[in-house]
Sequence to fold (210 residues):
Amino acid sequence: MTHAPVLPQPAPVTPAARRSFADHGFVHLPGLWDRALADGMAREARERWPHAEIPRHGPRTPVTARRVTRRGTPAASGPLLAGVHLALTGTARALTGRLLVPTFAAYGYYEDDDEVFLHIDTEQCDLTLLTTAFGNVGPLHVHPGLIGSTMERLGELESDPSWDRAGGIRVGYPGTGATALNGHVLPHHRPGRPRPGLHAVAALCYRSLF
Fold:
């Protein structure tokens, strides 16, 4: 008999993790759940793929026609991911010291390439938790030096052939945990490279009530 995955319990957040997040805008939070839950999210993400749609709302980096991709990033959610999202609210609050509430959580799918344009997340993402659902995506590149840039400025950089897409700080995801990102503040991108097959990242967003 297959048992339902156990949702994560509120995890203690170390002072070092809080300082790292405050100082750098990101921190790894490994060991938030077990392998069984990771496998459960992978199964759910694969099952939800046929229902994935390109979101109508979300960050849209204004780029030139030369840089427009073939399509957006399809997204879908599911009950297990929703449960994980809610269960990690206490961890999100402990990390940031803010009264955060869940806003949305989704699997984002990448087929044959994992490129993400330079952007900041929406206002619903005062905190973004990111983890690989299945497959193999490359690390995000975060850009502390671009904090405060408008989406228009980020679009200018993304459209500029001379902009160094290999630059920034590379940030991966723990296998049974998440990377916490100050997504609405810290610009980030993924340069993209051919990755045959289908891959998915889970993103869980929280916003502050105050």
